[in-house]
Each structure stands twice: as structure tokens, then as C-alpha cells.
Amino acid sequence: MSLLLVFSSSTLAAPSDQVLRERFLKAEKNIQKASPEQAQKILRDLHHYPLKPYVELEYLSRALGNTAEVKDFLKRHQGTPLEWPMKKRWLIYLASVGLSQPFLQNYQMGTDTVLDCYALQLRLLNEPAKTIWPEVTKLWTVGKSLPKECDNLFSRWQKADQRTPEVVWARLTKTVDGGDERIIPYLRTLLPQNLQYLGDKWKQVIENPGLVQRQNFLPLKHRWEREILTYALKKMVWKQPEQALRVWQRFETDPQFTKAQRTDVARQFAIALASKNDARATKFIAMVPVALKDDLFIQWQLAWLLRQKQWQQIQQMLAELPAESRNKDNLRYWQARVLQELGQQEQAKQQLASLAEERSYYGFMAAAKLGLKPSLAHKPVPITAEQYQAFKKSAAIARMYEWQAIGRPNAAKRELTFLQKYGTEPEKLSAAKYAYDKGWYDRAIFALADAGYWDDVEMRFPMVFNQEIQKHAKAAQVDPAWAMAITRRESTFIPTAKSPVGAHGLMQIMPQTAKHISGRRVSEQTLYNPNVNIDMGTNYLNYLMRQNNNNLVFATASYNAGYSRVKTWLPKGQQMPLDIWIETIPFKETREYVKAVLAYYQIYNIRMNQNHDVFVPLSTMQVGESS
């Protein structure tokens, strides 16, 4: 009888889209409390409605013991946002009834903390505990709270004497180093009583690193105190460099202060002192081996040497780095600049010419130095019309369309985001194009980044809000391409963007900035109006240009860091090439911001068919005071 009903319903004409949408909304509310017969009717009445699988998901979640149906659902919806919610619920069910074999066959460790704990508990049924405990230790030693579902596993692990003071200390260290500091008091209680003072000391140092200056603050009863000292010194050197250096001198020869700890402190001292243009950076730079020089360290070693114009030392520094580091755009550029300064012009030209093919800050700067036209190297996403049409007819897009139709845009974007992250290469690129065609420009930009495809210039740098930007930029007497570049960097064209510090809208206007520009208080909601926001943003750009003697780069830096701060960064009593000044901006955020905005400005300048090269004046500009 049920087969006849299914056959009959499938042969009848499907109801209208609107009727199916209304049925889906009712089904969402009723499926959990419906009897099996009612549930089957609800599902039949949805026919082939694209969102029907979400109702199926809730229905099957009541019958997780039906392995065949669960597996069939997972197979039909593999690679969709429906797969993991179903799989996780099923795995939790399998764990709850002790079905270890199917659980372990269908779960990959590291996917989910709760399921990791269940997996390890199930493995303890059949494997020697000594092979499981190291994995439990690794799971426990994290800098955050762990789910209560893991309590039974950790209790067994603790009773097996695996929670040693060393393990507790390792977790405490991770908690301090970027974890959840709220669990420090709890972890302190897990240490032996004679070591609990270490937890107290660490909590005090987090609040006030300068306490280590006190002669008796660290009684030096245990070697772990040096980890507290290392943490404090790394924090102190940024705000209290003199005091940090004095404490360093006290402990530098302490035999319990390990070589690794000394190197860790030296690395941070080198970066902090170099960023402050402090001559004592030299000593600490020399203490850090090449193997420990990450991008941040290299940046500040380079900046330090550039300020001193020590070109041969820069050449030596670059030569010591591994090839993968030297091949990055920034270091390729400075290799060429070193060759220029050392008189090796032909080699410099070759390096700059290679870099000039890149669409980046350094590529544009290299092209300008050689008098070459900047290269956009635009290549549309490599998907065929057939691939794109197939994508638009896919089940994912059908679901997306229906989520929008019933007024749930976030659910629609979730479908697209899933494809952007987990789809095949053609799906990821099609998802980016689809977002672009729909006017979701931020999603298109992020999708291309997720896909690692950087060459579709039109999609990555859309001409969105062009009319409004042209109008207000011209009224404010600033270049529309510059205003467009600022907007692209600030909000990725999201009109309702809000930053953690309270900047709002397309050009990320702070309420106090809005008040300064308009002379009155402006509501947050008003700042989400594109016309108002662009009007204020372009007027603020005009103000910053006037404050910075019409220096575009300083004005750009001021938009990010504030005019008064940028003023303190300008060279005193000397002049330096602009490219060196940009490379030595103390704040990483502002340094990267300036490079990005200048590159975006060049791109939008070309896209708007303007006839000047943004980088030509910058490539020879000297900044600072004449000596």
C-alpha cells in the first residue's frame, strides 16, 4: 500500500513552488513530533522540493539505528552541508550504544573534539591502554576548556596516573600562550601543592609583566620559573624596554635559563628594539639562528638594516635565507634594490623586470623603477560556459535559491560558503562567479581567495558603488580610484561592515570621525547608508591629504593608524626613499595596509582608464626633513 502511495504521489503534477515552500515551513516545525506514518506523508508531500533533505535529516535523526537509511542519506548528500550534521548525530548514537566497530570505521580522528573522546573510549575496549594514553594526553593538553563529554575518558586517564605535573604545566603554558586564561586557577589546583605558587605567579605576570623586576618576585626554587620569566620579558620589551633589558642582564647567565628560552627572548627583543629603531637591536638580531627566522623576524631585521642603509649586510642576510623565503615578492624586490645600491645595475634590472610582471605592490614599484607599464595580468576564472551552466542547475544552487525565497539569506550564503571551501576546483571557481553575478562581491572575493585563484581582476576588484564613489570623491577633490581602493581594503564592499573597534560601513567610519567631519553626532545606522558613508569617507581623505601636505602615502597610513601617530613615524633630520619608509612602518597592520591600498589604487586607476601611473612618483620619492 505504501509503495502505491509513493508511486501515485510521484506521478501526479507537483504543487506550485509557493505551496511547497509553505509545506516545508510547516514540516520543519512538525517533523520531530510526527508519527512515522505522518512523517512519511510529510516527506511525500514535499515531492522533490530542494530543501526536503533538511526535513529528512531531522526525521532520520529520530531513527539513527536504521544504518541502511542513514548510510543512504549520507551517500546521497555527500559533499553537501547536510552530510556532516547527519554523520555527527549518527556517530554520537553509535558511541552511545557502544558500537565501536562502525563508529571507528566511519570516523577520522581530529575532526571533532567530542567525537575524538568517544573514539578513544571505544578504542580502549579493544586496544592496550598504554597505546591510547599518549593520544589522550595530547587531547587534554590544550589552552582551552574541554567538553564535558570527555570527562569520563579524562577520569580514566587520570586514574592511570597519566596527568603528571609536567602534563599540567604543558597545558598551563599553552593556556598562557594565547589560550583561555580563565582556566588558569583550575589548572593551578592540579599542580602539586609545592608548585601551585607557579600558577599564582603566572597569573600575576599576565596582569603585570613588570613584576619580574622585583628582586624576590621569582624565588628561583624551580626551573619552570624561567618560563614565566621568558613570557614576562617578551611582553615587557614592547612597553618597558629599559626595564626588560635590566632584567635580562640579571638572568642572562642563569644556568636554569635554557638556550631555547634565551633565543626565544632574544628573538622578541630583536623585533621590538628594531621596530623602535633602537641600536641595541643589533646584539639580539645576531643571537637568532637562521632556522628560527620567520617572516616577522626577517621583516624587522631587514627594516633595521634598511634604516642604516647597510646594503652589503642586507645582501648577506638575504643570501643566508632558504630559497623559499628569498623567492617571496618583498625579498625579491629588496634583492634588486641591493644590487642597484651596490652598482650592479644590469642584474638589478633583470630582477626588477621579472618582478614587474607581478600584480602587487612590489611588482608595481619594480615596473615604475624601470619605466615599464604596470601589469594587471587579468585572466578570467578558467571555467567553461558548460561548467558554469551545470553549476547553476546543481542541487546546491537550487537549495540556495529556495533559502532566499523563504527569506533566509544566511542559510543561502552558507550553501555557497560550503562550496567555496569544500567543493571541487570548478565548483569553487563557479561559486565565486555565481556570487559575483548575484552582487555578493565580498563572497566572490573570499571565494577566489579560498580557491587560491588571484588572476581574475574584474571579480577581485569589482567596480561596485562606482557611481557614488565618483560623485563624492570628485566633490571632495580626491581621486576616485584611491577612494575605491580604500573602500575595497576597508570593507570588501560590505555596506553593513562593522569592525571590532567600532568602525562602520563601506569606508569604515568611526563615530567620532563622522562627528568631526559633519559637526554633529551621526548614528551607526546612518553610517550604513552607502551614500552617507562614502561622502564622509571621501571628505576625511581630503582632510588627511591636507594634513599630510598632499602626500598620498602618509594620508593612506593616517586613514589606518591616525594622523598624529603617522607624524611620529616620519624621519627626523634626514630624508629616506619612500620604499624604505614604507618597509619600516612600525605597525604591521598599517605597513600591510599601505602596501595593499597602493596596489589596489594602481589596479583601480587602470580599470577606470586614468592616464597616470600611481607608482611613478612614488618610486623616486624621498620623505623626511632635509638635513
Features:
single chain; two-stranded antiparallel ribbon; mainly alpha; 39 helices; disordered N terminus; 627 residues
Summarize the structure.
The chain contains 39 helices and 2 strands.
Helix/strand/pairing category: mainly alpha
Q: Fraction of residues in helices?
A: 55-70%
Strand content: under 5%
Weakly predicted, low-confidence segments: 1-11
Number of strands: 2
Describe the structure.
Helix 2 (17-30) packs antiparallel against helix 3 (36-45) and helix 34 (530-547) crosses helix 35 (552-561). Helix content is 66%, strand content 1%. The longest helix has 20 residues, at 588-607. It has 627 residues and is mostly helical. The protein is globular. It contains 39 helices and two strands. A two-stranded antiparallel sheet has the order 1-2.
Question: Topology, please?
Answer:
Blueprint: H1 2-11, H2 17-30, H3 36-45, H4 52-60, H5 67-76, H6 83-96, H7 100-106, H8 113-123, H9 129-140, H10 151-159, H11 165-176, H12 184-190, H13 196-207, H14 225-239, H15 241-251, H16 259-275, H17 281-285, H18 295-308, H19 311-320, H20 323-326, H21 329-341, H22 345-355, H23 361-370, H24 385-392, H25 395-405, H26 409-422, H27 425-438, H28 441-451, H29 457-460, H30 466-476, H31 480-491, H32 511-518, H33 524-527, H34 530-547, H35 552-561, H36 563-569, E1 575-577, H37 578-583, H38 588-607, H39 615-620, E2 622-624
Antiparallel strand pairs: 1-2
